[in-house]
What we know:
The complex is a heterodimer. Chain A is 76% helix and 0% strand. Chain A is built from nine helices and no strands. Chain A starts with a helix and ends with a helix. Chain B is mostly helical. Chain B is built from five helices and no strands. In chain B, α2 packs parallel to α5. At the A-B interface, α3, α6, α7, α8 and α9 of A face α2, α3, α4 and α5 of B.
Amino acid sequence: MGAAAIGIARQRNLFGVVLLSGIYSFLMATLLVVLDAVDVAMTEAAVGAGISTVLLLGAIYLTGGTESKPMHKPWLPLFIVAATGGTLVYGTLGLPAFSDPDAPIQQHVAPRYLVEAPKETGVPNVVTAVLASYRGYDTLGETTVVFTAGIGIITLIRRRKTRQKRGSGEETG
Amino acid sequence: MRMDIVLRVLAKLLIPFALMFASYVQFHGDFGPGGGFQAGVIVAAAIIFYAVIYGLPSARKVVPDGLIEALIAIGVLIYAGVGVAGIVLGGNYLDYFVLDHNPVHGQHRGIFWVEVGVAITVAAVMLKIFYAFAARRRDAEEDDA
C-alpha cells in the first residue's frame, strides 16, 4: 500500500494514478477483511476500486491525461502534511492496544449491544442492528448526506438542456 | 467498444449475477455482512458496467435520468416515512417496536424498509454522478453541433 501511495504521488500520468488508486483500494479492502470488517471491505472494494475508478477515468476523459508541473515548490504543503501525520501517529500512541478487551469502547455500550441486540431486534448481525435500529437517526443523517451530494452533483455538473437539444435528444438513445 | 463481442457477452453473463449478489447483500444483511449501502453501490456498479460496455445511451434507456432523480428522493422519503409510520402507530420517530404486534418483528420490518431506502438513494446517487460525468463531453458536443 505504501508503494502504491508513493506511486500515486510521484506519477505524472493520470491514467497510471487512477489504476494505482484502484490497486490501493483493493489492498485496503483486503486489510479491512483481515480486521474482520467485511461490511466496510465490501464498500471499499465497490466504491473505491470500482465506481471511483470509472468516475476518475471519466474525469480524465474530460480534462486530459497528464498532470501539469506544479507552479510552486511543495515544501510548505509537505511540511503541513508531515506535521499533521506525525501528530496523528503520536495520538495513536495513547490509544489502548488493538482489540484490548479492557479498552473504554468495549466497556461502554458495546456489551449492551452485543447482549441485547439479538434479543431486542432479532437480527443476528449486530452491525446492521446498531446501524439501522439503535442509531437510526445517524443512518438517516448519512442517507440525507448522500442525497445532498446527489443534489449537489445535479446542480453543479448537469448541463441545462436547451430546447434544441431536447428535440434531438430522442433519436440519440 | 461497440464491436467487442467478448466484452458484450461477458457483460451479459455477469450483470445478472451482480444484481443477484446485490439483492443477496441487501436481504441477507441481517445475517451476514452487508446492508443497504453496500447493496446500493453494487447495483450502481452493475448498471455502470452495462453503460461502459453498451454505451451510455442504451443505459439511459434502461434506467432513465428522470427515474434516477426521482429515486434519489424516494429513498430518503422511504427512510423518513418509516419514522413517521412509527409516530402514527403511537411510538417515537424511528421507533420500530410499534410496527408490528411482536416488537421483534416490528424491528425486523423497520430495519428492512430503512435499508431499502438507503439502498435506493445510494444506488441512484452513484448512477447520477456517473451519468453526469459520462454525459458531459457528449452533451457539450451536441450543444456545439
